[in-house]
Design a protein that fits this description.
It is built from ten helices and ten strands. The protein is an alpha/beta fold.
C-alpha cells in the first residue's frame, strides 16, 4: 500500500520560529500539486484515502498545521489562528516551488484556503471548501468548547476510537476499520500513573483562542471572511454535510450566489464534516479537480 513521505519545514510567527510537518504523496517532481488541509483538532493523515486516489495525478501535500500531528507547538497560545496558519502555508507553497496549487480544506483548512485564495497573485487554482464558510454557527462553537483541549487519556486505541467517535458523529458512517484508520494518527503514546496509553496528538492550547472568542470578535471575523470570500476568483466547490451544525443552509446558499459562486454539493446523513473517505464523497472532489 502506498505510504506518504514525512518532511519538516521551519516557519515563523510573532512568537518566534516553529516547525511544521507535512506529508507528501506521489511523484515529488510532479508540477501538479494538491494541498489538503485538515480541521481544527485533526492532522494531515485524515486525507490518506483521498491522497491514495489522487497521487497518480498529483503530488499531494497534507500538512500537519502547527500544534497538531508531527508539527511543533507555539510558545504563545494566542498565535494559534488564521494569520499564523496563512503565513505557514505561504512558506509551504514556496518550499514546493510551484506556481499554482489546488486546495482541499476541511473546516479550519477551508478558512485558511479562503484567506489564501483571496490574496492578489494567489497560488490557488481550484478550491474545495469542505463544510465551512464565513459564518460559523454558535451551536458548533458551543459543541467544540465541550471537548477541545480537555485532558484525555485512553488505555487502548480501541478505547480512544470509541471516545472520539462519540464526539464526531457528524463525520458520518464509517466501518470500524475506517474509523480506526482515522483515529490512529490522532493519538500519541503516553504513560500516566505508571499506565501506558494514549492521549490526543494536538496541543491543548489550541483551545485558548477559541475560548477567548467574544460575540464582537466573532462578528468582526465573519465580516472579514465574507470580504475575503468575495475576492476569490478561483473555481470553487463547496461541500456540505446535510446535517452540519457549522455551515448552515443559508450560508451555503449565499456562497453559491456571491463571490466565486461556489458549486454546492450536499451529502445526506453527514454533519460536520465529511471525511472524504467514502467513495461518493471522493468522487465529487475528483470530478471537480480533474474534469474530463
Amino acid at each position: 500500500m502506498t505510504e506518504p513521505r514525512l518532511h519538516q519545514l521551519q516557519c515563523i510567527s510573532a512568537s518566534g520560529l516553529h516547525r511544521m510537518a507535512y506529508w507528501e504523496w506521489g511523484d515529488a517532481h510532479n508540477p501538479r500539486v494538491l494541498v489538503c488541509v485538515h480541521g481544527l483538532s485533526r492532522q494531515g493523515r485524515d486525507f490518506d484515502t483521498l491522497a491514495r486516489d489522487l497521487c497518480g495525478d498529483y503530488r499531494v501535500i497534507c500538512p500537519d498545521v502547527v500544534g497538531r500531528g508531527e508539527s511543533g507547538r507555539l510558545a504563545d497560545p494566542m498565535a494559534y489562528g488564521i494569520p499564523t496558519y496563512l503565513a505557514d502555508m505561504v512558506t509551504l507553497v514556496a518550499r514546493l516551488d510551484v506556481p499554482q496549487v489546488d486546495w482541499v480544506g476541511t473546516s479550519m483548512g477551508g478558512l485558511i484556503g479562503i484567506a489564501l485564495a483571496s490574496l492578489p497573485g494567489t497560488p490557488i487554482r481550484r478550491l474545495v471548501l469542505n463544510d465551512v464558510g464565513p459564518v460559523v454557527e454558535p451551536a458548533f462553537v458551543q459543541r467544540l468548547g465541550s471537548y477541545l483541549g480537555v485532558p484525555a487519556f485512553w488505555r487502548t486505541e480501541e478505547e480512544a476510537a470509541a471516545a472520539l467517535l462519540a464526539i464526531s458523529a457528524g463525520f458520518g458512517p464509517h466501518t470500524p476499520e475506517q474509523w480506526l484508520a482515522l483515529t490512529r494518527p490522532q493519538l500519541i503514546a503516553d504513560v500516566q500513573d505508571g499506565v501506558a496509553g494514549f492521549m490526543p496528538r494536538y496541543d491543548p492550547a489550541i483551545a485558548v483562542p477559541v475560548r477567548a472568542m467574544t460575540p464582537a470578535i466573532a462578528a468582526a471575523g465573519q465580516a472579514m471572511l465574507w470580504q475575503m470570500y468575495d475576492r476569490i476568483s478561483a473555481p470553487t466547490l463547496l461541500l456540505r454535510g446535510a446535517d452540519s451544525d457549522l455551515l448552515s443552509p443559508a450560508t451555503a446558499q449565499a456562497m453559491a450566489e456571491r463571490g466565486p459562486r461556489a458549486q454546492l454539493h450536499e451529502f445526506a446523513g453527514v454533519g460536520h464534516a465529511p471525511t472524504l473517505v467514502q467513495p461518493d464523497q471522493r468522487a465529487v472532489v475528483q470530478r471537480f479537480l480533474l474534469p474530463p
